[in-house]
Amino acid sequence: MRTYDLSPLYRATVGFDRMADLLDRVLTQDSTVPTYPPYNIEKTAEGAYRISLAVAGFTEAELSVEQREQELVVAARKAKDDTQRTYLHRGIATRAFEKRFQLADHVRVTGAVHENGMLHIDLVREVPEALKPRQIEISRAAPQVIEA
């Protein structure tokens, strides 16, 4: 596995430390990143996204969706079940998990829906008016008279 030294990036830039941290985190992750639960990320419209997680076996009360600054944290913990069950085959995993997604600037969660064993989280990117590109009007300069 290759490793990259991003320290020159830290020394040569100002204000890009969050981006450098994100790159560092992505580049240093190994192949043991948990893949449970499986999920999809789709673009539903311009500036709108949906994360869908397969959460079969969990109820709404056992699921948690929280946005912390630029991070979305989805967690699940199965409630204690006191009934004795004997499984002949157990293929539905209901183990606890915590899944984290890094969000871009100005992305916020607009809602979450649990249906048919899927948790759908809708997100939207809303850029403030002050940060949107704006057209600057170019005016014609008045002719200047040069006196001799």
Automatic annotation (TrEMBL):
<feature type="domain" description="SHSP">
    <location>
        <begin position="30"/>
        <end position="141"/>
    </location>
</feature>
<dbReference type="InterPro" id="IPR008978">
    <property type="entry name" value="HSP20-like_chaperone"/>
</dbReference>
<dbReference type="InterPro" id="IPR002068">
    <property type="entry name" value="A-crystallin/Hsp20_dom"/>
</dbReference>
<comment type="similarity">
    <text>Belongs to the small heat shock protein (HSP20) family.</text>
</comment>
<keyword id="KW-0346">Stress response</keyword>
<dbReference type="Pfam" id="PF00011">
    <property type="entry name" value="HSP20"/>
</dbReference>
<dbReference type="InterPro" id="IPR037913">
    <property type="entry name" value="ACD_IbpA/B"/>
</dbReference>
<protein>
    <submittedName>
        <fullName>Hsp20 family protein</fullName>
    </submittedName>
</protein>
